[in-house]
Amino acid sequence: MLTGILYALAAGLMWGLVFVAPLLLPEYPPFLLSFGRYLAFGMIALPLGWMDRKALAQLSRADWWEAVKLSAVGNLIYYLCLASALQRAGGLVPTMIIGTLPVVIAITANVRNQKRDGRLPWRRLTPSLTLIAAGIACVNQREIASLGNGTTADLLRYASGAALAVAALACWTWYPLRNADWLRAHPGRSPRAWATAQGLTTLPLALFGYAAAWIGMDFLDLPFPMPFGPRPLAFLGLMFAIGLFASWLGTLCWNEASQRLPTTLVGQLIVFETLSALSYAFMLRGKWPEPLILIGIGLLIGGVVWAARNRPEPATVGEQTV
Questions:
Q1: Share of the chain above pLDDT 90, in %
Q2: Contacts 24+ apart (CB under 8 A), 280-288
Q3: Of 48, 75, 87, 113, which is most buried, counting CB atoms within 10 Å of its CB?
Q4: CB of 5 within 8 A of CB of 309?
C-alpha cells in the first residue's frame, strides 16, 4: 500500500509539470504543445522500446490495440478537448469540471470494480470524497465567484467549451480505469514496458497530428514560424523534458501504483497532480497562495490521507453497494 501511494505521488509530481508548459511558452498554441509533447514522448520511447524488446515481444495484437486506444483517448484526445475548452470557455468552467477527476474516478471505480477490487461502502468513501470536493472548491474560489456573475457574451461558445471540458473529463476518467484493468489482468507483465508500448503507439498519432497542424497553419497563412515556433530551443527542450518525465516516467510510476492499489483508491490519488500543478504555478509567480487556497490544499491532502486508511471489503454475491 505505501509503495503504491509513493509511486502515485511521484506520478503526480511529474504530471504537474505539464501545466507549467503553457506558462513558459505562452506564445505557442495549445494544440502544438499537445502534439509536440507526445511526439517527443514517442521518440523517447524508441530507444526504450529497444531496451524492453523482449517484454514488448510478449504483447499480443490485442495488447497493442489496447495501447493504441489508451494513447489516443488518454493522451491526444484528452488534451485536444481540454485545450479547445479553455479557448472557448476560458479557465472558469473547464477548471471546475476537470478538478472533479478524483471524485468521479473514485465513484466510477467503486461501482464497476467491486468483483475484482472489493468495495468501499459509501459511508466510508464519502468523507474522503467530501474533503477532496471541498478542497477543489476552495482552490477554485475565484472561478466559483466569477461563475455567479454570469457575464458571458457568447452562450453558445461558452456551452460548447463546457461540453468539451466534460469530454476531457470523460477521457481521463476512462483512461486510468481501463489502464488499471489491463495491468491488473496481467500482473506478470512489466509496467515499464507497458508505458513504453503506449509511447510507441503515440508516436505515429502525434506525428500525424503535428504534420496536419503544420499544413493547416501554412494553408491558413498564420504568422507562426514552423516547425518549432519562435523559440525553437526552449520549445524542443521543454517538450523532451515533459515527454521524458511527465509522459514516460510519470506513466511508469502510475502503472506501478495501479498494480499495487485498488482502483477506487488510486483514482483519488490523481489529486497529487492537482497539488503539484498548484505548487509549480505559485513557484513561477514567486508568491504564496492566498489563505483560502492553502485551506483547500489542506483539505485535498486530508482527503487523500483519509482515503489511504480505507481497505476494500470483499463483495459478496447479491450484496448491495450501500
A1: 17
A2: 280/16, 280/17, 280/19, 280/20, 281/19, 281/20, 281/23, 284/20, 284/23, 284/24
A3: 75
A4: no
